[in-house]
Amino acid sequence: MKKDSKPLLPPVPFPSQGAKPLSFPLTGYSYEVRNLAGWLQEYLDEMWDQQIEADLASGKLDRLIAQAEEDIAAHFALDRPNQKYHS
């Protein structure tokens, strides 16, 4: 940002500076806020998926995958939440 340009939004104060938390629904804006939040979550999900795919293709996850496969073979991984470890 240029020194002489103004920010698009005013600075957001921290709670220690007397900021009050937002309460939902925001009067008159709840629909827009929910739509924005939904869009943002979809965007973040897509970015996550792309990063995982890139990491997988580059081999960054190979060590973790190998460890998971070893754990599965040694019965250290659970199929169901209530399943007990094999002894």
Explain what this protein looks like in three dimensions.
The protein is mostly helical and 87 residues long. It has two helices and no strands. It has helices at residues 30-58, 62-73. The mean pLDDT is 77.
> What is the beta-strand fraction?
under 5%
Number of helices: 2
Number of strands: 0
Task: Summarize the main sheet.
Answer: none
The N- to C-terminal Cα distance equals 61 Å
The helix/strand order is: HH
Percent helix: 40-55%
Give the overall average pLDDT: 77
> What is the global morphology?
elongated
What structural class do helix, strand and pairing data support? mainly alpha
Roughly how many Å is the radius of gyration? 23 Å
Low confidence ranges: none
Supply the key terms.
single chain, 87 residues, mainly alpha, 2 helices
Could you give a quick summary of the protein structure above?
It is built from 2 helices and no strands.
Question: What are the SSEs and their pairings?
Answer:
Elements: H1 30-58, H2 62-73
